[in-house]
Specification:
The structure holds two protein chains of two kinds. Chain A is an all-alpha fold. Chain A has nine helices and two strands. Classes of the chains: A mainly alpha, B mainly alpha.
Chain lengths: 235, 302
Amino acid sequence: MILSKRNQFLITFAAFFVLGAAFKVMVLVEGFTEVRPVNAIPPVAGLAFGPIGAIACGLANLAADLFGSFGWSSSLGVAANFVAAYLPYRLWHLFSPESPNLRSGKNILLFSGICLTSALTVAWFLAFGLYTFFGLWIEEVYTYVFFNNLGFSLLFGLPLLIVLTSDSVSLSLCKPAKPIIFGRCNIKGPACAAYLLLMLTIFACVFIFHIDPQNAPWLHGLSALSQLGLLCQLI
Amino acid sequence: MTKTENNILLFSITLCWSASYVFIKSLPPELSSFAYLTLTAGIAAVVLVAIFWRQLKQITRGTIISALILSLLITANLLAEREGIALLPASNASFLAALTILVVPALMLLFKQKPTRNHIAGAVIIVLGLCLTNRFALSAFVNAGTLYMLLACLTYAVYIVVADRCTKKENPLLIGVLMMVFTAVFGFILWLFENPATFFSVTYTRELLSSLFILAFFSKAYPFILLLFSQKYADPMRVTVIASTEPIVTLGLAVIIPAAFGAGETLDIFSLAGAVIIAGGAVVAGTHFLKARKRAEGGMHA
C-alpha cells in the first residue's frame, strides 16, 4: 500500500487526535498528563512515515490538548511527541539495514530497545523541560510519561507495526535519511550506548532515588549532556 | 507473518479485552446492552469505514455473506453472555465462558480438522487452571444462566471456527469492517424494539462519550480487525489458547492498577497457581512435543 505524504500526515494526525482526545478524561497529573494509549502511535508513525509522521504526531498532540490540558506547556508536548516519533525512525536506520519489520527476534529486540530509549527520552524531555522553562518539578510527570510511552508503545505499537508490515497490508515505508553526524564518524554504537546509559542514570536518579534537580544541580549537567546526545542522533 | 508476530497480535487482543472491563464499569447502568452494542460497534464502523474506504471497493458477495454470518454469531454471543452474567455468579459465568477452549476442538472435528495431542492436553490443563482460579467454588449451576452461558460459549466457538474458514478465502480487513457495520445495525434494531427513542434516550456526557470512544476502539475495532487478520495465519486452537490466558492478563492488570478493577482481585495462592497452570496449558497447547514423542516411540518400535 502506497500512501501520499498528505495521506500519511492526515491518517497519523486523525488517529493520534481521536485517541489522544478520547483519553483526556483519564487524568494522571492534572493539566499535564493522562493515561495515553495514543503513545503507541509515535514510534510506529515515525518508522512508517519518518519526519511526516513525526510532525503529524506533534501537531495532533497540540490539537488533542485543546480537550483538556492546553497551556504553554503544550509546546513542550509538540516537541516531545515529534521526538517520540522521529527518534525511533533515526535509531532503526542507524542500527538496521532492513526496512522496519518485526519478522525476526533480532528486530523485535531492536524495536523494544528503541521504544525504551524513546520513552526515557520523552520522560526526561518533558519533566526537565517543565522545570527549565516553567520552574515546575513534578516527579510524577517523569514517571507516568515514561511508563505510558514504554508500555503502550510495546503493547500496541508492536502489533500495529506487525499489521502494517504484513503481506496483506504491506505499507510502503519511508526511506532512511542519511545521518549527518554519524555518517561522518563511525561512533554510532558507543555514542548511542552512552546516551542510553545517560538516560538510565537519569531514570534511576528520578524514579528510584527520588532526586530532584532543585537539590541536585549536577542533574542539569546530565540533562545538558543528554541534549547533546539527542541532537547527535536526530541530525 | 511469522508465528511470533501472530502470537503478539493475539496476545494484544486478549490484553484489550481484559482492559476493556475497566471502561465497561465506567458506563452508566441505565445504558442498555443494545445501546452499548449499537454505539460502540457504530463508532467502530464509522472509524473503520473512514480509514479503509478505498479498500471497500474490493468487497465481494463472499465478503458480505461472511461478515453477515460472523456479525450474527457475535451479536448472539454478546446477548447470551449478557443474560448469563445477569443470572449467574461472576465466577460461574467466567468459568463457563472459558469452556470455549473445549468446544473449539470438538467443532474442529466436525470440519474434519483433528486437534493435536498437545491441543487436547493443553485444553485440559487450562480448564484445570480455570477451576483453581475459581477455587473450585463453583455451585448453583442449575439455572437458566448456565444455558445462556453455554450458548454464548458455543456461539463464540462457532465464530472462531467460521472466521478461520472465512479469512482463508476472503480479505479479513473487509470482513472486519463489514462485520462492525452489520453488528451496529443488528444492535440498533434490537435497541429500537427495546426503546424507540434510541439515540435520544441517552444523556451524552463528556465521560460517557470518552468511554464509548475508548470501548469502540479497544473492545471492537482494534481486537476484531486484528482477530480476523491473525486468523488468516493461525489455526482456531491457537486463537482459543491465547484467548484463554485472559484470567492471567486480568490478574496482572488488577495487580498493577488495583483501583481500576475495584480492588476486588487479590493475588492469593489460588489465583497465582491457577495463572501458572493456565500459562503451562497454553505452552503445552502451543507446542508439538507430544507429537514428536509419538513419532519417536513409533521409530523405536520400528
